[in-house]
Amino acid sequence: MKRNPAIPYIFIMLLGIALVFFLSVKGLGDAKEIAKDNKKGDAKTEAPAGQTGGKFDPEGFAKQTCVACHGNNLEGNAGPNLHGIGKKISKDEIKNVLKNGKGAMPAGMVPAENIDAMADWVANLK
Predict the structure, then answer these.
(1) Which residues span the membrane (predicted)?
(2) What is the pLDDT of residues 28-50, one digit of tens each?
(3) Could you say which of 11, 40, 56, 83 is the most buried, measured as most Cβ atoms within 10 Å of its Cβ?
(4) Class at the top of the CATH hierarchy for domain 51-123
(5) CA atoms within 13 A on the CB side of 32
């Protein structure tokens, strides 16, 4: 009696398919459990960039968002130096740039409800 050489390969293939099926079902169960935990509030959530305790923090926002272009100390990099910018342009112009962008800076970097606080902070950088 001669053995079929394809039998071990078919067995391994079936085992692999069963394993993939089992892991996908297990993953779906885990996803449902995670979603349930998120609804209960058990999962840790972070506040949006620059916000702590519901209050907007312009300095924290700048450290997370603006440093990529304006440098670690906002001294200028790809974007201009922001120190003393309040002496060069008005607060309304700063608000306009924050809202609409300018040059390589895209519009909408700062949430609309926080533009006034951010413009005040940037205008007073020394």
Answers:
(1) 6-25
(2) 666 667 777 766 654 444 445 55
(3) 56
(4) mainly alpha
(5) 6
